[in-house]
Amino acid sequence: MKQIKRPKNKKPILLATLLGIVAIVLIYFGVAYAAHLPPFAEKKDPIATGEHTVNMEKSETEKKTETDLKQNPDKKTDQSGVDVPAQPTTDPSTGKQQVQVLITSAGVINRQVDARGSVMNLAEDGGTCTFTFTMGSASVQKTSGTLPGGPTSTSCKSVQFSQDELSPGTWQVTLEYSSSTSYGKSTATSLEVK
């Protein structure tokens, strides 16, 4: 009698191979997680690690300025690009110096409105800083004194008050500085009240 050969069952071999692959993948993920390897590698902050790069190429503005200075060497004494504020001019109608006023910050923190500002081109004592908050026909004014700001500037004391004094919405904030000899008003900045 002739024996019939049965084909070998390949299912156990295939299952063992598949289980082996799954085990290898799981082991890799376990090791990768512990050692911070991909896909678990942490992304590095290039600034925090000191690995950032600096673009040393000159901007178009810098190139143009350099070309202008080569063509007109007399402009080297012009310091319009220097971070020193221009000297105040005198308003002929009032006789007061016109000063540059800037709101340095205006925001709401812990339900308190906080606004700060400076006179950029004048150092003096005794002036008054008036912060005006407007939205539509509503207006709220807060006044503060000054602090020495340095050799060329005057800082306004910050104003702080409850945000409940301002209804929700976008308010425009301006700052006026006034003294016996000087006056100036900032451009408006927006303040969002929720």
Description:
- The chain is of the alpha+beta class and 194 residues long.
- Helices cover 19% and strands 35% of the residues.
- It is built from two helices and eleven strands; from the N terminus they run ααβββββββββββ.
- The chain has helices spanning 11-35, 60-71; strands at residues 89-90, 97-98, 101-109, 112-119, 128-135, 138-144, 146-148, 154-162, 169-178, 182-185, 189-193.
- Strands 1, 2, 5, 6, 9, 10 and 11 form a seven-stranded mixed beta sheet that branches.
- The termini are far apart.
- The model has no long low-confidence stretch (mean pLDDT 82).
Q: What is the fold's blueprint, element by element?
A:
Elements: H1 11-35, H2 60-71, E1 89-90, E2 97-98, E3 101-109, E4 112-119, E5 128-135, E6 138-144, E7 146-148, E8 154-162, E9 169-178, E10 182-185, E11 189-193
Sum this structure up briefly:
This protein has 194 residues and is an alpha+beta fold. The chain contains two helices and eleven strands, in the order ααβββββββββββ.
Salient structural properties:
7-stranded mixed sheet; alpha+beta; 2 helices; 194 residues
**Number of E strands:** 11
Oligomer: single chain
Between the first and last Cα atoms, what is the distance in angstroms?
Answer: 95 Å
Major sheet attributes:
7 strands, mixed
Low-confidence stretches: none
Question: What general outline do the C-alpha atoms trace?
Answer: elongated
Which range does the strand content fall in?
A: 25-35%
SSE sequence, one letter per element: HHEEEEEEEEEEE
Total helices: the number is 2
- Alpha-carbon Rg, integer: 34 Å
Instruction: Name the helicity range.
Output: 10-25%
Which structural class fits the helix and strand makeup? alpha+beta
Mean pLDDT: 82
